[in-house]
Amino acid sequence: MTKLQITAGQGKISPESYDSLLGVIERSTDFVRFRKVTQDVFRQDKAEFSLHYDPDGKIEFSMPFSSVIISYLIRSVAMKLGWSVNDVDLGYRLSVDPLLVPASYFSAVNGVPEMLDQGFRPVAFVVAHEDTSNIEAHYYEHIPSGAVHLVNPALLALYFTSHISQAHPELSYKVADSAEDLMRRDDHGLIPTNFYWFFKRDLKIINYSFYPIDHIKHKVFFVPAVYRFGNREDLNRLPGGGSLADKVRKGETLDQAIRRVLRDELKMADDYIGAAVTTRIEFDFDRDDKPTPKLFIKVVIADGELPKQAEQKMRRGWKSIDQSKT
Predict the structure, then answer these.
(1) What total of structural domains would you count in the chain?
(2) What phi-psi label fits residue 81: left (phi over 0), alpha (psi between -120 and 50 degrees) or beta?
(3) Exposure winner among 39, 154, 217, 221, fewest CB in 10 A?
(4) Can you tell me the mean pLDDT for 249-274?
(5) Global pTM?
(6) pLDDT in tens, 127-142
């Protein structure tokens, strides 16, 4: 049995919004796949789905079996509407990315070994959008510590054919403190998916752009979108649109530049949990009219109240760090 509870953050879901959920499902490009799956299941198991609107402003969805594609559809629609999806049995909110699927949603974990002899068991997988049976990333819980590791798929394949008694240094590395922490970090793109691309790298900044951020030798602009951990509201937004921007100064690393902007310019925090350099890269002119790359970065700070100075600045609006060309 899978039970999902859909909520609207701090507010309530109205009956009209519930009706819109049904409409979005029917208009979804995945609905044809959804309908085919449900029809096949109905014929085989005579299963029944339950999609129920609670007067308290919540939507409850349940099904007497596990289905990756059906949970994917429900979660993707909820994400488009800005709602959250909680798994009742797991006891935590699922990631906004519906492609990160709890291992319990797979009927037999697709034959993936538990690796109990190494102290690991599967906790979640990233599946391909076009083929939800195709696993692209494997996340396992390290049973003694509860931490979640990204497991090397190449080594994992050996467990299908042979038994490995000794731990291998390239078997896995830690990416989250727990399964719930995995979901929260994934909300902000702070979880690596490619094992070797991030192997033995500092995971505080996840680089999706492929721009060489580890060796910045010349001027680089960056625009930080700042979020509280577990919250999707960008704190770095100008009232008239746009965001405050800065540059990596001479002698700075990107990490140092982010911390400086958070501390000295935005006055929000002294440090941050993690950052994700997005795939978006643009070029802008500096004060010498030289084309300069500009990175767009998601920065996640710890949850909690902002310093009074930051709240005052948010109320009166942002001012650019440099009114002239940077």
Answers:
(1) 3
(2) alpha
(3) 217
(4) 93
(5) 0.81
(6) 887 676 788 899 999 9
